[in-house]
């Protein structure tokens, strides 16, 4: 009897403890759910604290070297190549003969043209003399003179053809590519040689619209060449496009004198110095990624009393991923740098550490 009573009491105690544990767990779960619900109402964001810093104000732009001059030397007449006098890598001067085209048929034509000219000269002289005595009419004399002129033109035309059998370099430079060999048959306009002049090169770069006002024609620009880190180069701005491309970048060309170690196609970086001549300036900046709808909007969110506040600032120049702030911030504010797409003015936020 006593044992039965003890069992009943122990069972009641265990049931009571179990009920208490279930109730305690339920209370904890309800507390956690409420906390999660609070967090769901907030938007996770990252922030930076606005501060003044020393910014490298030099602006860099990458590009590739292009030959100052290049051309495809083409044939001006049709025919068969007899001799090729240069090879790839040969240095040539403007007007130098690069190849010759077979001229046998042309020489026959020029002989015929010269014979026709001699006959025209004799005929014209006869008509000139006859006209003085009234033996021919003025119209007959004029026809004779016209035939003489046509014969002279024909001789000159054949002379041009003979000259064109010698393919001459249009510019001074280096033979970069040779597309013909002896025996090749070419037609008018056939490309025969690619000539490049790299005594001076053009570095072609794109400059952002925010920086274009800082450069000018004739300005000297230091240049760093990736594959020649030990060498220093500089060039002079010779062209600034009057119109930007679709990305609001302006094509700029910088002429660089080649000391012999630069090649067309090399990758390089132009460093545009500030007008102040100082490498760094102390200024208030925020990351470019903080702006809503791009830097040009001037809008960003700051943290105020646990919420996001949309403000408008006046921006200065852009230095890489940093944007100069001229007004609208004083320093010390917490600026939101991620999560803005989900924010509205007054949205509750949760700062991610």
Automatic annotation (TrEMBL):
Pfam families for the chain: Beta-barrel_RND_2 (PF25954), BSH_RND (PF25917), YknX_C (PF25989)
Keyword presence, Lyase: no
UniProt family annotation: Belongs to the membrane fusion protein (MFP) (TC 8.A.1) family.
Protein name: Multidrug efflux RND transporter periplasmic adaptor MexH
UniProt cross-references to NCBIfam families, sorted A to Z: RND_mfp
InterPro entries the UniProt entry points to: Beta-barrel_RND_2, MdtA-like_BSH, RND_pump_MFP, YknX-like_C
Annotated Multidrug resistance protein MdtA-like barrel-sandwich hybrid domain residues: 75-196
Keyword Membrane among record annotations: no
All residue ranges annotated as the YknX-like C-terminal permuted SH3-like domain in the record: 284-350
Organism: Chryseobacterium ginsengisoli
Gene behind this protein: mexH
Coiled coil region boundaries: 103-130
Domain CusB-like beta-barrel: 204-274
